[in-house]
Backbone:
């Protein structure tokens, strides 16, 4: 059963439809997308989920196991390869 989408208006006045209780509008997500760094390579839900948890650097990301990261709402298995590659490029990895 699909959740009903409702019209919302974000703090900046952008109108959008969402079925979840996520307060971010797609317009704001695009405006807030970093231009570089590992967060710029992730989808908006994954990026927002990490930032919400305070994980905004690869050093912080490396303190978590892949299993712990997957437990965060908004992060799915498709995001892991991107995070893994970003960590490896800096000589880091997920916690074992």
Residues:
């Amino acid at each position: 059963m699909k959740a009903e989408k409702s019209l919302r208006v974000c703090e900046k006045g952008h109108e959008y439809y969402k079925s979840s209780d996520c307060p971010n509008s797609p317009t704001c997500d695009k405006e807030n997308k970093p231009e570089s760094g590992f967060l710029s390579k992730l989808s908006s839900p994954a990026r927002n989920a990490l930032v919400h948890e305070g994980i905004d650097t690869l050093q912080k990301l490396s303190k978590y196991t892949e299993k712990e990261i997957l437990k965060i709402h908004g992060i799915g298995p498709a995001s892991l390869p991107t995070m893994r590659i970003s960590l490896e490029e800096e000589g880091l990895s997920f916690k074992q």
In short: The domain at 35-96 is CATH 1.10.150.20 (DNA polymerase; domain 1). The longest helix spans residues 80-89. Residues 43 and 79 are 8 Å apart (CA to CA).
